[in-house]
Amino acid sequence: MSKFTFSICLLLLSFTGIAQVQTEAKDKKEQAKTTDSIAPKKERYGLRVGVDLFKLTRSFYEKDYRGIELVGDYRLTRRHFLAAEIGNENKTVDDDRLNFTTKGTYIKVGFDYNSYQNWLDMENVISVGLRYGVSSFSQTLNSYSIYNPNSYFGESPEIISGEQFKGLSAQWIEVVAGMKTKVFNNIFVGFSLRLNRLVSQKQPANFENLYIPGFNRTYNGDFGVGFNYTVSYFIPLYKSTVKAAKKAENKKK
Fold this sequence. Notes:
Elements: H1 2-37, E1 42-52, H2 53-61, E2 65-75, E3 80-94, E4 98-114, E5 125-144, E6 159-184, E7 187-202, E8 211-212, E9 216-217, E10 223-241
Antiparallel strand pairs: 1-2, 1-10, 2-3, 3-4, 4-5, 5-6, 6-7, 7-10, 8-9
């Protein structure tokens, strides 16, 4: 009787083990199907075009300034963007002893690197980049006064000039840091800070390029700073599947 009971128990245990193995195999298959059913993540690639609101609004509240700048970038890889800006400026500078007007156009081309790790369907950008700028412009010396070290006889009268200097040019390099945020579908707002370094310039023999369109004030040197605040529209061209990240190396024992 005991042998019979032992045989029955052994048989039941065998069936239980087989059923457990089949259940585990079924669960693995279902898990694999679930994993395969998850759609791969895709990211949008395209062209983004916009305008610098800072220069545009400055033209309304500053009577001695007129300017506009168009901006654009193209997504080349997941993190790299080709970028460019093109603009026109008309700026009158009124210093203590000098009043002059600068007019001209400029173009800047380069790239941006997005250091921000987006998740889900986010498309925000926190970037650093580089630009090479070229400007063609003219200067008009409106008026000036000669410094008189002997104030006993009073200040020298202002001299009206009107002399023009045409065919001027400048080239420079910009280091750019900025960000762009998607606020609505395909609509982005952003800003950038720029540090400029002149590479070369053509200027008159008796007058310096104190203001360069696209570069801003030179302050009698080779360095300058810039800022823009942009609104842009993204034009999607195609989507690319994001490759799954490789698994980390096995932990050391």
